[in-house]
Design brief:
With 84 residues, the chain is of the alpha+beta class. It has one domain. It is built from one helix and seven strands.
């Protein structure tokens, strides 16, 4: 199963997905801690992947953010919302 690093709800995460007919279906993610990835190659992957993939996960659905999209984080419960 392919995976990559991404920013999910403004946190570093690994996402697992499957690609069929040009569409990617995300199966799940888990929040990762950058300090556990120590090699230069892993650090390079984090930098490259997080620049490309930014997601919001809410109500069991993923929504991809485009460049220039702004998000806000509710300080009380950590909910991330896209600002229109």
């Amino acid at each position: 199963m392919p995976w990559c690093f991404a920013m999910v709800n403004n946190k570093l995460a690994e996402i697992y997905f499957d690609r069929k007919q040009g569409q990617a279906k995300i199966f799940g993610h888990f929040y990762a801690n950058k300090k556990y990835y120590k090699t230069k190659e892993e650090q390079k992957w984090i930098t490259q992947d997080t620049a490309k993939v930014r997601l919001i996960y809410r109500n069991s659905k993923y929504k991809r953010l485009k460049d220039g999209d702004l998000v806000e984080v509710d300080a009380n419960n950590g909910i991330v919302r896209k600002i229109k």
